[in-house]
Amino acid sequence: MVIEKLPYALTVCKLSSVADVDWDAAFYFVARTDEELSLVCKTADTPAAATARDDGWRGFRVQGVLDFSLVGILSKLSGVLAERGIGLFAVSTYNTDYILVKAENFDRATDALSGAGYTVIP
To answer: Is 94 helix (H, G, I), strand (E, B) or coil?
Structure first.
């Protein structure tokens, strides 16, 4: 499996509304539940009106389109990182999965994934 390193810093934040989200930005995830409104975006695109934010994330993208019948992809990736004591924040799209780790763990996460047999590309 090929894992792509994303080349930018990311932020995870909470919002009170979507009014300040840059809908033209190249990369973002928005999630709304009955309890919160969350945004993952490039740090440079973080809305000033965020009610809480956690900067310093880096990301990996699982390359290709993943069929919904595939089982255990996130479990295996998270297990590799957990063995090294690396926490993660995962998000998924219709096509694939993304794993975010704190920037200070990014190189260790890259090494761990490579060491587990994943092909990690820039």
So the answer is: coil
Q: What angle do CA 101, 59, 92 make, to 5 degrees?
A: 100
Give me the CATH topology for the region 2-121.
VC0802-like (3.30.2130)
Domain boundaries defined on the chain: 2-121
Helix and strand numbers, DSSP H then E, in the chain: 2, 8
Helix-, strand-, coil-residue percentages of the chain, each rounded to 5: 20, 35, 40
Q: What is the pLDDT of residues 57-112, one digit of tens each?
A: 999 999 765 555 555 678 889 999 999 999 999 998 888 889 999 999 999 999 99
Whether the Cβ atoms of residue 77 and residue 117 lie closer than 8 Å to each other: no
DSSP 27: S
